[in-house]
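Researcher: Structure prediction, please.
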Amino acid sequence: MKKTIICLTALSLLLLAAGCSERNVAEPFSPQVVHPQSGAFGLSKLGALAKRNNASEIKEGPGVAFDLGEIKASTGFFFLLYNIGATPITGVTLSIEDEPFTVYPQKMDSLIPGSDIGMLPIVKISAFHGTPYDGVGIRPMLPMGKNDFTLVISGTTTTSDGSDTTVTLYAAMSLEALVMDFDVEGMNGAIDLESTNPVPMQIFEELPDVMDYRMPLVGTRCTGDSVIAITNTGNVPLSCRIYRTTCSSQGCPVVADSMVTVEPENALQYTITDDNDDYYLFILSGDNAVSNRTLQDDGSYYFSLELGTSECGSAEINDRRVAYLAERENVDCSSLWGFIDTRVMFYAQSFNQGDSVYMEMYDLVTGTVLVTYTGDIDGGEYDCRTEEQIQYCEDLKNIVSILSTSSDLKILNNGGVDRISSGGSRRWDESGFSEVR
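Model: Predicted structure follows.
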């Protein structure tokens, strides 16, 4: 019996030693008690028509960014919100501090893990820009150009050690707010289109759509030639359509006089002449972008213009123009003059083939000749000494080039003139030279 007890004791000690040996070897690979992984936000932008199957890549992390592109008016953007972690996120809140932007929904009870498109919540961001998006009324316009704002998404989840914590995603958004805007100037300064009450323009009854609109009617201050400059101060191309009547009473024929697109920060210069075209109609549109101006139902701005009753420009400038032309005795069928812009005139003497040609640019404000050209229509010398004169030299070169190939002298300009006639000029188009009629 004693031997048996000793053997059993020894055996137990051996087994205990063996067990301790096995446990020490396996300890590095023994399973750990690990809490489930925490939740985390992911966000993707939906494409056209906010279709779920048209989503972009999922962006994740504490900070992400989206370029929303250009908007012409109030616009909605749609996103899919994901939980890319392993545990639910509860008490989810969504917010945007910038007033022109809103987000819906603003709260969610829980966001479960998974990427099943059919189960993911849709987040809608509204950018209000000049027009109502939901409902009626008007909205303030966004500043023209780039606008930035941040969508903040926050909630509570469980970390790897089992404790609750807050997770937040900051989504930086940027968009380009498009605006149609313009300034109108005459030779004496700005023309205030808001200074007169809109009136119906029945003289343009040949244009049926126009008869439905009331519009400002403004004057030029000038009895004779005048330059009207329309500057595109917006950030969308400005489409300009110009019509004119051929007399001053209702029922007169209406002529489509020009159709020009003016790029942002550029200007259209148009010459008004006193040749019984007493009324002009301007239709300006910016590809349906919103505007600070009062637009008609077709998204365009309409205004009408008539010749004024006073002399064009200041008395000093007008006297200088008259004196300048009086000094050039050959203002006849072989000589031309016109405006390059609101202060600079051109004068060209003799454009018959084989004749000697003289041309100059004259500054009505300073009373000085800016640049001259002497030669013939096939070549000559330009007198250019300053940077300003170099630009006018380019104008002269273009004019001479055109006149050398045009027998009826219908074109011209760098700022503008695309028809020249004896003793004056019509229509201005900054896009360059074009033969319209």
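Model: The chain has a mean pLDDT of 75.
Researcher: Thanks, that helps.
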